[in-house]
Amino acid sequence: MTKGTNQIKIAIIGASGYTGAELVRLLACHPNADIRALTADRNAGKPLSEVFPHLGGLDLPELIKLDAVDWADIDVVFCCLPHGTTQEFIASLPDSLKIIDLSADFRLSNIKTYAEWYGHDHLAPDLQKDAVYGITELARDAIKKARLVANPGCYPTSALLPLVPLIDAKQIDTGNIIIDAKSGVTGAGRSAKEGTLYAEVTEGIHAYGVAGHRHAPEIEQGLSAAAGSDIIVNFTPHLMPMNRGILSTIYVSLANGASASDLHATLEKKYAKEPFVRILPEGSVPHTRHVRGSNHCLIGVVADRLKGRAVIVSVIDNLVKGASGQAVQNMNLVCGLDETTGLQQEPLFP
Amino acid sequence: MTKGTNQIKIAIIGASGYTGAELVRLLACHPNADIRALTADRNAGKPLSEVFPHLGGLDLPELIKLDAVDWADIDVVFCCLPHGTTQEFIASLPDSLKIIDLSADFRLSNIKTYAEWYGHDHLAPDLQKDAVYGITELARDAIKKARLVANPGCYPTSALLPLVPLIDAKQIDTGNIIIDAKSGVTGAGRSAKEGTLYAEVTEGIHAYGVAGHRHAPEIEQGLSAAAGSDIIVNFTPHLMPMNRGILSTIYVSLANGASASDLHATLEKKYAKEPFVRILPEGSVPHTRHVRGSNHCLIGVVADRLKGRAVIVSVIDNLVKGASGQAVQNMNLVCGLDETTGLQQEPLFP
Amino acid sequence: MTKGTNQIKIAIIGASGYTGAELVRLLACHPNADIRALTADRNAGKPLSEVFPHLGGLDLPELIKLDAVDWADIDVVFCCLPHGTTQEFIASLPDSLKIIDLSADFRLSNIKTYAEWYGHDHLAPDLQKDAVYGITELARDAIKKARLVANPGCYPTSALLPLVPLIDAKQIDTGNIIIDAKSGVTGAGRSAKEGTLYAEVTEGIHAYGVAGHRHAPEIEQGLSAAAGSDIIVNFTPHLMPMNRGILSTIYVSLANGASASDLHATLEKKYAKEPFVRILPEGSVPHTRHVRGSNHCLIGVVADRLKGRAVIVSVIDNLVKGASGQAVQNMNLVCGLDETTGLQQEPLFP
Amino acid sequence: MTKGTNQIKIAIIGASGYTGAELVRLLACHPNADIRALTADRNAGKPLSEVFPHLGGLDLPELIKLDAVDWADIDVVFCCLPHGTTQEFIASLPDSLKIIDLSADFRLSNIKTYAEWYGHDHLAPDLQKDAVYGITELARDAIKKARLVANPGCYPTSALLPLVPLIDAKQIDTGNIIIDAKSGVTGAGRSAKEGTLYAEVTEGIHAYGVAGHRHAPEIEQGLSAAAGSDIIVNFTPHLMPMNRGILSTIYVSLANGASASDLHATLEKKYAKEPFVRILPEGSVPHTRHVRGSNHCLIGVVADRLKGRAVIVSVIDNLVKGASGQAVQNMNLVCGLDETTGLQQEPLFP
Question: Distance from B167 to chain C by nearest Cα, in Å?
Fold first, then answer.
């Protein structure tokens, strides 16, 4: 990769997980990215290619422990640590650093809601006020000025991109939103658990966390902000045999005389100039395969047989637009680069 | 397999498809089943094991053309022909035969609805009146007396088993039922189409037939009969990478002061003595993997976060309880046998 | 399941793994099997259906700790403990018990070879002498009289069934046998490891344990016994995305003027009357899908383009003929039952 | 994508198949590629995004019929037509065009061998003499000067890259080479066939074309040229459930006193400076997942337990290095560009 002259010095904290590896994959083709530090406490001392052999041909720094990073040499930190471990760490970083946090630790602006859903008090409440919740297309201006971007969850990204404009337009009933989501397995991370073993996942599907998944309050936060009132949703995630991808089938009641075509028109207008969000012709629905490996979100709208209702289907790659791709998109904004830099790879199909 | 003395002489019409092969698999372990004729027009003259090598060790008649069947030697006909080709054929059969039809040709009792959804007039309207729609647990007495059983579709089986008792109990709002279904690929049959190629299906998911799938009127017929009034539903099927299985996630509004626990109690009571339907503890949800290869239907009920709503999840194997297994279950009833005969294989997991 | 009068009282030790669950699945349809004890130390106190929900409709004893088994109430023990933990345990059992051991602990008759490959001394060398290595078709008479059957590994079963008769017939060169094997994931068990996560296995393949897999000495023991001299083989296993199945592609040099047709004839003659081994027509090769869920082994023979060589392909379901099915087959022999009892389920395809 | 000033005007003939779509995916990120014509006879008049929705965001010409191409506007033709249809077509093209042919029609330099394996006489024997068989790393200088590049088959690429240098070095016995290959499904193309339906492929594996696959003579041609004498090999391909990827496990006898380490050293030296071929440390073996979506070939060498033998494992993505990626690599050479242009995307894992 020929690199440009405007180099951003980058640290990836927690590089031995799937989102860390995906950042490296994307940044390897980013002309302004200079990866200077990769941390992974248990694997410190190894090359990344020992943990992820598919990244074997790159010229990368060795994995080091978190406390071995020379922060003076870093401009932007991508933080891929597990939920609950990130607040104190980020609070300890020098002010000069820009931070994209891929954990859930700064996503909920209400620290009481955080405590309720994550089971412990927020450990950096002051810093929380500075965090910008970063669905790029919905918060572009704020992200440009942010020091700390709370990179959104995968499910919330797939739900908020279609729903927020419709709530803004007052075209759907806010008391009756049902989000039936189907996710690939990488959303569960790389740590070994019985439930994500091949033999437990292949050739089947099941719902999980029904009425209790931590992405529900994150979705509700975004919708409530758009509506200006508290919204509760049904959010029912399912785990299915695919590595990458989220498909959210969203069932809505129409409001204020709107039709499915009106919803479609609202979304088309909202996203007409967006490089990564594409609205399909009315009546068409997207496949997760159509976005695999890319930063795209595809959205379809179909009129329901039930009068006064519509079905909306959105798809993303959970590791790209749902995590590391959106993180790079946000980094581009934070650093004043063109938003699409390094993100122009087309989807990999089949 | 040791066979009993009370042998039923069986013909399987259309034995070269997946439902035909599944009938052979199940009947091979059925102590009263004597397979006397297997038809497959294009493959006539071959042994079935050439078309389905997994059925290679059995002592079966050769595949023959449809017009070569000696009906005098047959007691029960399983009809696995494509939709639209079955009405005239069945009308031509001797009265002495009992018939289990696995196509959609006799499922809709209203022949106008049939014509509307299948694009041509019903070709055996008189015979339609005699057909019994055969979800075994919901129509047991009628099936026992039937000559012609219209074996239900896979999606309708998974939806009607949980919903009919709840409508009978007037515990759910009939105007607002949403059925988000996820199906394995065998539901599309064995004929070669681009859309069911491995590379087009693996590692992804998509909705199809949104607001237009032919199983919608079949579901609505069953629900409307229970309610005593016309019901329209949202039915949104999805195709996903698994061979066998349907999971229906059903979103309902509670009625008449019922709670999710009340729904659960209704289903538990209804199915307490059923050998093939099992209600999970409240709050638990089933995996399709838990029924693979078996005639079971598992159902879970969970209270929604949205007040006054509940989520119901049901799973079946589309080729067994959703097709050939229920067909054998119905044959057992029609022939006066114990309903579980030949159907006691446990699920295959992993 | 209607049970017969001759009931065998069975204990399954280590019932929370895949081979334990598979034993339960098979024995649930076995007319002479009475499961009296199921052990699983970490899960003691739970019903098996909590660990394996697909086994939810059965009338089974609760999981207990190993030391809570009442051996006086048991006739046959299936031992599904991890390798290395079984020798002392089995040595401690009452003499009255018959034992089928599914671990590797008693498979290698030479305790020096055992120590070399398993990294510790054999802990029950005296008992080793009594163990019969149990590929049913190759050791039927010895198994009938055995107290302790060492149930064979999955790879060795797939390799020895075709190779032993050919070595007996002196039709292949014993210095030049190459076994390229492809296995499903359940062979690695249910314990959570990064390497068997869905995302690490799906949509790919890799070789592992090249020139160092512990099933190599087990294969060599069986071949050497047949040849009357020490044989070393190439054995290269691969892990691929399927739950069940092993396909072994075996490359052999012909000896003593034999042709591929001669090899085929030898195998056809050897297995002509076997209920579970089927030789395909010469030039045909089997799929793993054709044996899924069944106790069958299918074998094909093809002449190579390289003069004087042949290719043999064999398939089994690693959890059935490669583990629990062969274990039941051996129990039937040990207990004087018909060898096929409880094992007549046809393969599940698709 | 920012495009450079040196634009190559490109036509893709047969753009509605997988290799055509893969060319578009790669060329969309190629700074010097200007796609001017896309042909697909049956789909003429549609946008490519209707046939391949994952390529929906690109600015591409509409699909047209073959005879509608304005050849005066084209510099380079990628030909993705089925085997047997390409010879006459390419013979009819203007001399000014450079051609990369992805079919098999010009791969066998001996037209008798072609006729024998493809069942008809070669239809452009004069043109055959000009065709350069294009494994880039093995024929770089000839490709630079070529007008017509016969782009190699996927299996031959995976076999010849490791084997040719070893034959050049006289380190392996040429009479005894066994290539056990495992392929993903896209190698069979997008046309609908029963054998590549999802339900027929998932969760299983089988060998096919044993001793009769058309890639055997292509492999033998490359090896024979290196050896200077006729070589016959065993080549046994297997079809397995993955979209992309070929893994070839190659069994060789060592010659002239060479050890496995010597083989490893030869390959390391040969490929030390290659951007797309990487030799793993001795004893390590690659996964197909490590090259998915990339133009890489990874190769491992392991000493066999059989004395005097070694095992070599190579992996490629069959659609990239095995087809469209190598085609772009060859186009780069033919056009005087840096060979890696447009091919620097990292593998997609998971």
Answer: 27
Top residue of A52, A194, A198, A289 to mutate, by most chain C CBs within 10 Å, is A198
Spell out, as residue ranges, where chain A has pLDDT lower than 70. 1-4
- Give the 3-state secondary structure of A224-277: HHHHCCCCCCEEEEEECCCCCCEEEEEEEEECCCCCHHHHHHHHHHHHCCCCCE
The catalytic position among B79, B80, B154, B297 is B154
| Nearest Cβ partner for A347 among D1, D54, D287 | D54
Write out the DSSP string of D203-243: T--EE-STTT-THHHHHHHHHHHHHTS----EEEEEE-S-S
CATH architecture of the domain formed by B155-318 = 2-Layer Sandwich (3.30)
Which CATH superfamily does the domain covering A155-317 fall into?
A: Dihydrodipicolinate Reductase; domain 2 (3.30.360.10)
The model's pTM = 0.97
pLDDT in tens, C162-176: 999 999 999 999 999
Other C-beta atoms closer than 10 Å to the C-beta of D194 total: 11
Q: Per residue in D313-342, pLDDT tens?
A: 999 999 999 999 999 999 999 999 999 999
Q: Shortest CB distance from C285 goes to which of D206, D306, D309? A: D206
What is the three-class DSSP state of B284? coil
Of C29, C186, C346, the CB nearest to B54: C346
- What pLDDT score does D1 carry? 56
Interval D44-67: pLDDT, tens: 999 999 999 999 989 999 999 999
Mean pLDDT within B184-211: 97
Q: How many CB pairs under 8 A join B and C?
A: 89
Q: Do the Cβ atoms of D252 and D176 come closer than 8 Å?
A: yes
Write the pLDDT tens digit of every residue in C194-218: 999 999 999 999 999 999 999 999 9
What is the interface pTM, i.e. ipTM, of the complex?
A: 0.96
| D211–C313 CB contact, under 8 Å | no
Q: Where are the domains positioned within chain A?
A: 8-152+321-334, 155-317
pLDDT for the residue B57: 86
Q: In chain B, what residues touch C299 (CB-CB under 8 Å)?
A: none
CA distances (Å), origin A207, targets A49, A190, A201, B284, B302: 35, 20, 12, 10, 11
Is C290's CB within 8 Å of B58's CB? no
Contact B200 A244 (CB under 8 A): no
- Portion of chain B with pLDDT greater than 90, in percent: 97
Q: Which residues 6+ apart lie within 8 Å of D331 measured at CB?
A: D8, D76, D78, D98, D100, D337
Distance from CA of D344 to the nearest CA of A (A): 7
Looking at residue C57, what is its pLDDT? 86
- Six-digit token pair at C191? 């314990």
Q: How far is Cα B188 from Cα B206, in angstroms, rounded to an integer?
A: 14
Give D294's contacts in chain A (Cβ within 8 Å). Answer: 54
- Whole-angstrom distance, CA of residue A212 vs CA of residue C335: 51
Instruction: Provide the β-strand partners of residue C13.
Output: C39, C79
| C236 touches D311 (CB < 8 A) | yes
Q: Is the pLDDT of residue C1 over 80?
A: no
Q: Please state the rounded mean pLDDT for residues C118-145.
A: 97
CATH homologous superfamily for A8-152+321-334?
Answer: NAD(P)-binding Rossmann-like Domain (3.40.50.720)
Q: What is the mean pLDDT of residues D257-280?
A: 98
Chain A residues in contact with D350 (beta carbon < 8 A): 18, 185-186, 243-244
Residue D5 confidence (pLDDT): 73
Q: Which residues of A are catalytic?
A: 154
Picking from C18, C21, C28, C22, the residue whose alpha carbon sits closest to that of residue C326 is C22
DSSP-derived letter for residue C322 is I
| CB pair distance less than 8 Å for D54 and A289 | yes
